[in-house]
Amino acid sequence: MPMFIDTSPPGHCIFCKIAAGEIPAAKIYEDALTVAFMDIGQVNPGHVLVASKRHAVTVLELTAEEAAAIMQTAQRVAVAAQAAFDPDGITLFQANGAAGGQTVFHFHMHVLPRHEGDGMALAWPRKEPGMQMLQAYAEQLKAALQA
Ligand SMILES: [Zn+2]
């Protein structure tokens, strides 16, 4: 997990300032809704952040149009990273809320070129609650989707 934590108030956060060009960043792409720039931490060469231009904290606050634009930009950046750095793999990583691993509270998605043994780890405990619970969770989500 990245150790940098931005505690700026909403609207004055570091990614708002980067999007506005108020502080320097190694930008690689921007359009009406998104901006892509080099992550200062660089897990591996070519590690890019794709952020919404508008200040939205998490995925829950994005408009559908912004969500689509973020994924389109992330996919373009991934294709460019593959061409430029020839990684063994690419991880798209996006965290929401402190409990979700978010450290800068302005929506962003990591495009992470990956190499065998590069030291990046994500614990993924399998809990396998069984089909009855899966169906119950599915019913909860379907009800929420229709609301
Ligand atoms: Zn912001």
TrEMBL record:
It comes from the Bacteria. A motif (Histidine triad motif) lies at residues 106-110. This is HIT family protein. Residues 14-121 form the HIT domain. It comes from Comamonas avium. SUPFAM superfamilies: HIT-like. PANTHER family: ADENOSINE 5'-MONOPHOSPHORAMIDASE HNT1 (PTHR46648:SF1), HIT FAMILY PROTEIN 1 (PTHR46648). The lineage of its organism: Bacteria, Pseudomonadati, Pseudomonadota, Betaproteobacteria, Burkholderiales. InterPro entries: Histidine_triad_CS, Histidine_triad_HIT, HIT-like, HIT-like_sf.
